[in-house]
């Protein structure tokens, strides 16, 4: 499902690589936790896996596609078909209701709009009565579930969640992870979540750990 080899990433102007992953692999349906302090490159790694950033050095393969070989437009289509991304900043559109925010996933990947699928996901996530609510009418946890439904819409093989438990109390942390895991398992997808939070490791004991270190620190 995922193979990473000798991956480094350096943003323009930086003197040392901000990300360094010698080797990592994940089988289909296996789950992983990317853990490291703030600034260690967790978001950068998830953006590379999602083909939002282009790898400069090293290799990332997702379901037998080498990310570096994708041209930008092809990358957008490929991402839409294979990757579900739950960003740390949820990026819901304020003027669109929950259903239409979910349907952006269809639009972005060039697939037919499917309101029934959006509504089924809303129901599965306990938001059946929120289809026409705008983001400002939702709690933070409800907004995160709308963003999760958007990530799930295209039935991705790989679900990426960037710090999904930041700012959650212990009980909400456990239930957020249980929800992500249940949704990934239902699709037979692999789940990769990033965190700086040791509670996540307890809540997802079957997750393979990928530890990142602060840039410049010995690994
Ligand atoms: P994390 O998600 O673990 O907090 P990031 O991947 O966001 O870490 O950032 C890793 C490092 O790269 C940090 O030093 C950060 O300042 C730097 N960085 C992140 N995004 C950019 C960018 N777009 N341009 C330049 N530097 C960046
Ligand atoms: Mg981050």
Task: Output the keywords.
219 residues; alpha/beta; Rossmann fold; five-stranded parallel sheet; binds adenosine-5'-diphosphate; binds magnesium ion; ABC transporter ATP-binding protein; nucleotide-binding; AAA+_ATPase
Overview of this protein structure:
Residues 2-219 form the ABC transporter domain. It is globular, with a radius of gyration of 17 Å. The chain is 35% helix and 21% strand. With 219 residues, the chain is of the alpha/beta class. The protein starts with a strand and ends in an 8-residue tail after the last strand. The chain has a single domain, classed as 3-Layer(aba) Sandwich (Rossmann fold), CATH 3.40.50.300. The protein has helices spanning 42-49, 72-82, 98-108, 115-124, 140-152, 170-187, 198-203; strands at 2-9, 19-26, 32-35, 57-62, 65-66, 83-86, 158-162, 190-195, 208-211. Helix 6 links the parallel strand 7 (158-162) and strand 8. It contains seven helices and nine strands. Strands 6-7-8-3-9 form a five-stranded parallel β-sheet, with helices on both faces. A four-stranded antiparallel β-sheet has the order 2-1-4-5, with helices on one face. It binds adenosine-5'-diphosphate and magnesium ion (MG). Magnesium ion (MG) binds at residues 42-43, 88, 162-163.
């Amino acid at each position: 499902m995922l193979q990473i080899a000798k991956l480094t990433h350096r943003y323009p102007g930086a003197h040392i690589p901000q990300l360094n992953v010698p080797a990592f692999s994940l089988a289909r349906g296996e789950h992983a936790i990317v853990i490291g302090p703030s600034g260690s490159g967790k978001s950068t790694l998830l953006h590379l896996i999602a083909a939002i950033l282009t790898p400069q050095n090293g290799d990332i393969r997702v379901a037998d596609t080498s990310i570096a070989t994708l041209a930008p437009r092809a990358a957008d289509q490929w991402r839409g078909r294979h990757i579900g991304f739950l960003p740390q900043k949820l990026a819901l559109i304020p003027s669109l209701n929950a259903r239409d925010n979910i349907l952006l996933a269809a639009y972005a990947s060039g697939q037919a709009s499917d309101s029934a699928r959006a509504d089924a996901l809303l129901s599965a996530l306990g938001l059946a009565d929120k289809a026409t609510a705008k983001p400002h009418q939702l709690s933070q946890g409800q907004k995160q579930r709308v963003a999760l439904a958007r990530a799930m819409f295209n039935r991705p093989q790989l679900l990426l969640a960037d710090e999904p438990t930041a700012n959650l109390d212990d009980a909400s942390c456990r239930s957020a992870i249980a929800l992500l895991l249940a949704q990934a398992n239902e699709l037979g997808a692999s789940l990769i979540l990033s965190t700086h939070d040791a509670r996540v490791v307890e809540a997802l004991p079957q997750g393979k750990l990928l530890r990142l270190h602060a840039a410049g620190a010995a690994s």
